[in-house]
Amino acid sequence: MADPVRWGRETLKQSVKNSGDPFLSHKFGLEIDNVTVDGCTKIDGLEFELAVVEYHNGDDKVARYRPGKLMPSSGLVVERDFNGSPEFFNWRKKVIDGVTSRSSISVVFKSDNAANTEVKRINLFNAFPHKWEGPQGNAKSSGHLSEALHITFEEIDFGK
């Protein structure tokens, strides 16, 4: 006869739910110049690439490669619910008006515990917006209006 099942519903819930999981994709925040930006729902395009340069040694027929210059992302996209607050639009408008307002940005990842403890931070420096997307309505959808800001940055640092 087989052993009875020893795992109850509560035991399974506890084994799956880690109260400090730092890898949940929905637990993040955004800070621009140490000011928290509320309502961010998506961050995409967080990349930093190194160019690859091809070269040849004399008459050598084999292509060789070496690391080239660092190329930060020009495609960081931050989306948030459109709430009428003008921070994203005003920052972009400064650039349009010829005042390149560079800022420091932090993407802050939080744990799943009740205190939303910070577990990781990625810092982006010399960042400025190059595109703003205003709210787009869809009468067939019950979702919220959202706005998006496309950001270019020059340096990246993995904080604590």
If you had to describe this structure to a student in words, what would you say it looks like?
The structure is a single chain. 11% of the residues lie in helices and 44% in strands. It is mainly beta. It has a domain at 23-44 and 74-158: Pnp Oxidase, Chain A. Strands 1, 2, 3, 6, 7, 8, 9 and 10 form an eight-stranded antiparallel sheet that branches. Strands 4-5 form a two-stranded antiparallel ribbon. A hairpin with a 7-residue loop joins strand 7 (103-110) and strand 8.
What's the arrangement of secondary structure elements?
Elements: H1 9-16, E1 28-32, E2 35-37, E3 40-44, E4 48-55, E5 64-72, E6 76-81, H2 87-96, E7 103-110, E8 118-133, E9 146-152, E10 155-158
Antiparallel strand pairs: 1-2, 1-7, 3-6, 4-5, 6-9, 7-8, 8-9, 8-10
Which characteristics define this entry?
160 residues, mainly beta, Pnp Oxidase, Chain A, eight-stranded antiparallel sheet, 10 strands
Question: Quick gist of this model?
Answer:
By secondary structure, the protein is mainly β. It has a domain at 23-44 and 74-158: Hcp1-like (Pnp Oxidase, Chain A).
